[in-house]
Design brief:
By secondary structure, the protein is an alpha/beta fold. Among the domains are: 64 residues, no CATH class; 103 residues, no CATH class. 41% of the residues lie in helices and 12% in strands. It contains 16 helices and 11 strands. The protein has a 9-stranded parallel beta sheet. A two-stranded antiparallel ribbon has the order 1-2. The protein starts with a helix and ends with a strand. About 5% of the residues have low confidence. InterPro entries: LRR_dom_sf.
């Protein structure tokens, strides 16, 4: 299979090479646009190898969609015949471009700074990551990353701290370079999405002034979101409309509520835990639910865990009628709350149950509903709602 793909790639390369002298530049532009829209990373890479003009055109689009690649990395670099790990190569090129050490300004072409693949370079025990760390943290990179010079901690238990420092420094350099390019009139340099595992509240507030066009923010630890962070984003990132987290401690419910209330009213469209991270340990509390009503007119997508015996608290969201997707999950049964007790409790408060069902009925744009460990008290009635054709309503109850 690998040989077949290689032969196909070579055939495509020969075809492009033979045609490059005859096709008009506008035709090449259309070819590159089509490859970009179809996420054909191999095709874009081959176009980039034709000549300098094509390289600028193809690489700009290649980096613009790098986060959509299967592995969130690109195969664009070789060194003396040895193939670098794809993600290590990508991040080396981004870091070096942020200090002007590359032929092209790669980091100015990205639209989403997604550091998941960067984190994978250092994931796992120190010994097993030695190869990928060594490839990225070379002496050349070390000249530009002060935190990477701490080589004594590369393969020790202190590497977790070092990893956070390196990640923060990488984000600093990329964001600052993009901001500087934008200030000098480069309209292409715009970062719309930021996602990384190692963010602190202080870092977010520092970066906010350089992220004026940011629309989506994903953090690993939801507890870094507080009213101060919200104020920084409210003042500097008016386009922010999506906020997601991977982990959250319920004891920080008031802190999360302060963040939600601190954002400009009715600006948040999507909020909740990253679906791959749905876990009862990351459930939000009643104060966060109340704070979501500050965005009642704008909220379209919600997804989170609720604590024990809290289903009836959904009543506070009754004004959020623009919801299109709702994913709710409940903590697994315990001795104090055996399986089914939540549903019985809800049925014991029929007025609240009816109010929740009434709310869901009024969400006429609701297209996706997923309940986990939650009674399907309203799904049959929702399916009968004339304003919502059942064939366009995706529902799942587990």
């Amino acid at each position: 299979m690998a040989n077949a793909r290689t032969e196909t790639g070579l055939a495509r390369a020969k075809l492009l090479a033979s045609a490059r002298s005859t096709l008009h530049p506008e035709i090449w532009w259309m070819v590159v646009e089509e490859l970009s829209e179809s996420h054909d990373f191999d095709g874009l890479f081959l176009c980039a190898r034709l000549n300098r003009r094509m390289a600028h055109m193809a690489l700009r689009r290649l980096y613009g969609i790098y986060d959509l690649s299967p592995a969130c990395n690109l195969q664009i670099c070789y060194l003396k015949g040895d193939k670098f790990e794809k993600s290590a190569c990508l991040w080396r090129s981004l870091v070096l471009s942020s200090v002007g050490e590359t032929l092209y300004p790669y980091c100015c072409w990205i639209k989403s700074l997604k550091l998941t693949s960067f984190d994978r370079l250092f994931a796992g025990p120190p010994v097993t990551c030695r190869s990928s760390r060594a490839r990225f943290l070379s002496s050349h990179i070390g000249k530009y990353l002060s935190s990477a010079k701490d080589r004594d901690n590369y393969y020790t238990e202190n590497f977790d701290r070092l990893k956070r420092d390196i990640t923060t420094e990488v984000v600093d350099k990329v964001i600052n370079y993009i901001k500087a390019a934008s200030d000098h009139g480069d309209t292409v340099s715009t970062l719309y999405s930021l996602q990384a595992p190692w963010f602190s509240s202080a870092s977010l507030m520092t970066w906010a002034p350089s992220l004026s066009q940011l629309t989506s923010l994903t953090v690993d630890d939801g507890t870094v979101l507080n009213s101060d962070v919200a104020q920084a984003f409210r003042e500097n990132c008016p386009a922010l409309k999506e906020v997601h987290y991977c982990e959250f401690q319920r004891t920080n419910d008031l802190q999360m509520a302060g963040f939600l209330r601190g954002l400009a009213p009715n600006t948040l469209e999507s909020f909740g835990v990253v679906r791959e991270s749905l876990d009862f340990r990351h459930s939000i509390g009643i104060e966060s639910l109340k704070a979501l009503t500050e965005h009642a007119s704008s909220l379209k997508r919600l997804g989170f865990y609720l604590p024990q015996a809290a289903l009836e608290s959904l009543v506070v969201l009754s004004d959020c009628v623009s919801i299109e997707s709702l994913t709710l999950a409940h903590e697994p049964p315990t001795q104090d709350f055996p399986h089914g007790s939540w549903g019985n409790t809800l049925q014991g408060h029929m007025s609240r149950s009816e109010r929740i069902l009434s709310w869901l009925r009024r969400c006429t744009h609701l297209k996706e509903l997923k309940f986990t460990e939650i009674p399907d008290f309203g799904v049959p009635e929702l399916l009968e709602c004339p304003e919502r054709p059942s064939d366009k309503f995706d529902h799942q109850v587990q």
